[in-house]
Amino acid sequence: xxxxxxxxxxxxxxxxxxxxxxxxxxxxxxxxxxxxxxxxxxxxxxxxxxxxxxxxxxxxxxxxxxxxxxxxxxxxxxxxxxxxxxxxxxxxxxxxxxxxxxxxxxxxxxxxxxxxxxxxxxxxxxxxxxxxxxxxxxxxxxxxxxxxxxxxxxxxxxxxxxxxxxxxxxxxxxxxxxxxxxxxxxxxxxxxxxxxxxxxxxxxxxxxxxxxxxxxxxxxxxxxxxxxxxxxxxxxxxxxxxxxxxxxxxxxxxxxxxxxxxxxxxxxxxxxxxxxxxxxxxxxxxxxxxxxxxxxxxxxxxxxxxxxxxxxxxxxxxxxxxxxxxxxxxxxxxxxxxxxxxxxxxxxxxxxxxxxxxxxxxxxxxxxxxxxxxxxxxxxxxxxxxxxxxxxxxxxxxxxxxxxxxxxxxxxxxxxxxxxxxxxxxxxxxxxxxxxxxxxxxxxxxxxxxxxxxxxxxxxxxxxxxxxxxxxxxxxxxxxxxxxxxxxxx
Length: 490
Ligand SMILES: [Zn+2]
Prior knowledge:
The chain is α+β, with helices and mostly antiparallel strands and 490 residues long. The protein has three domains: 1-80, no CATH class; 81-234, no CATH class; 319-475, Restriction Endonuclease. The protein has helices spanning 11-27, 83-92, 108-124, 134-138, 151-168, 172-182, 190-200, 212-232, 238-245, 251-254, 264-274, 281-286, 307-313, 318-341, 409-419, 421-431, 452-456, 464-485, and strands at 41-43, 46-48, 70-72, 75-77, 358-360, 364-368, 385-389, 395-402, 435-441. The strands form three sheets. The protein has a five-stranded mixed β-sheet with strand order 5-6-7-8-9, sandwiched between helices. Strand 5 and strand 6 form a beta hairpin. It is elongated.
């Protein structure tokens, strides 16, 4: 604590208080920064001149000029707070915005403008698709959101907490502030506004009984739930979240990639895909009500051009962009195993890794995209990666990678297991060791099923970082697919 405000009835009492502070400061080897100190006298609500304040040792504390301003905790103050000036300062110094909530007389409409301003800046810098769901911007990652702070929510929380402080504090000055506050018209009173905000959130809590932390957590949760409900009730934007809720999707892990560094433009693209607002021909015709020559895909002309088709179902993209995405994900696993078992010269990053068809050392042997020769003919004999673990317990891993449409992740996992069952049985008999099928299935926007973690944990030395890298590879592949198609954004 090195910023202090002393209140006294008259100069004599103030002198005593300054004296006490000086003795205390001397004892802890601190001294007054006289250039930053000021004395202000207020009589009947107006500042008046009564001279500077002498102190025991050193120069006097100068008096604040009439209508002069003093900066306390970042806010210019005089006889009161200069609201207009404070708002101007806050607008230019965004980071200190929340300091004045409940003190500076912001209206909710003014506060909402901050959120709008941020979104406009994000759209301009291509970090937010203009038609994306606004609610998802402010939901936490574990609920499928981008985790941005909402200024209006923050403002309401601060006012509620300030009202709680005014009502429950034992401090004599705070009690006086409370008495003053309840005498104000409801539009200006902190307590009245706080009651209105609590009522709007339908929070069942007694503001005088609960602790500040309990109130903060409850209000925070309620704001989240309210936003989540609004999103779920939206016909187009709510589709993805509603689908995740009614299917075995690991929602929290499906958004693990948000914790890793990824360009904000790529992040925006993935959210636009999930929100289904990418400007495909079907979107233009059915959502934007534009007249389009045909609904069929601009590349293959054989399917309707929906976002799901372009991301994972177009035959024209399968041999190029989809394969590239698939190989990107598979090479993360190859790189991870090379790294773990110290095979050969390994690139520093998974994205510069070029897997060789066969790599081997005393602990492991890996075959990349290799035909497995068996005694009897087996049609599905080419898994993406075959790993022979030579150390005890010896084991063979058949790793199959896929990046299907998000809605197909579970079906794809099951399909991969069924498809390679015969090969696994045959290899198990041939090598006299267990052969395990590991489906690595990440949806085009990173969605994973509830089973994916269990499957991936069978890969040696598997970590959260490996998980995030696999997901990031799938997502970068998808962004690349979309960039190559060259759709209009708005
Ligand atoms: Zn197509």
